[in-house]
């Protein structure tokens, strides 16, 4: 189980550094962490070397932390981008509506003047 934990830890740690692949590596990292803990606890009872299990625990824990950090960075960046886009959209929408209202008022004024010239009652 120690070897499996270590191999899964290596793969999960590598995948954790690749943006958006970390989400795929999260479940194997948790499984590898559990395998490493089980291996270390079993080998502790028998006084056997537990280096591979410890390496698996460390690698999987690092992978989980990296996945968590990337997720938080992505969430913060997405939130900031969303705020900027919504601010730009609301400013642009307000500007477009103001321009449309001004054009309608100008057209109405011109139409009223034209109607007055032809003596037609509005």
Quick structural overview:
This protein is an all-alpha fold and 122 residues long.
Please tell me about this protein's structure.
- The protein contains three helices and no strands.
- The protein is rod-shaped, with a radius of gyration of 32 Å.
- It has one domain (2-89).
- The protein has helices spanning 2-16, 22-45, 51-117.
- With 122 residues, it is mainly α.
- The model has no long low-confidence stretch (mean pLDDT 85).
Give a quick set of tags describing it.
122 residues; 3 helices; mainly alpha; rod-shaped
N/C terminus separation: 90 Å
What is the element string, with H for helices and E for strands?
HHH
- So how many helices? 3
Helix content: over 70%
Q: How many domains would you count in the coordinates?
A: 1
Report the major sheet.
Answer: none
Shape: rod-shaped
Rg computed from alpha carbons, rounded to a whole number of angstroms: 32 Å
Average of per-residue pLDDT values: 85
How many strand units? Answer: 0
Low-confidence stretches: none
* Quaternary assembly: single chain
Class from helix and strand fractions: mainly alpha
Query: Which strand-content bin applies to the residues?
Result: under 5%
List the helices and strands and how they pair.
Elements: H1 2-16, H2 22-45, H3 51-117
Helix pairs in contact: 1-2, 1-3, 2-3
């Amino acid at each position: 189980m120690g070897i499996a934990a270590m191999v899964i830890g290596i793969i999960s740690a590598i995948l954790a550094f690749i943006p958006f692949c970390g989400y795929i590596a999260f479940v194997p990292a948790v499984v590898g962490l559990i395998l490493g803990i089980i291996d270390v606890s079993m080998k502790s009872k028998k006084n056997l070397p537990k280096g591979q299990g410890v390496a698996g625990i460390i690698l999987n824990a690092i992978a989980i932390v990296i996945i968590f950090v990337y997720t938080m960075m992505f969430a913060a960046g997405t939130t900031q981008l969303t705020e900027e886009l919504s601010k730009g959209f609301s400013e642009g929408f307000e500007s477009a509506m103001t321009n449309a209202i001004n054009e309608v008022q100008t057209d109405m004024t011109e139409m009223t003047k034209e109607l007055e010239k032809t003596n037609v009652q509005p």
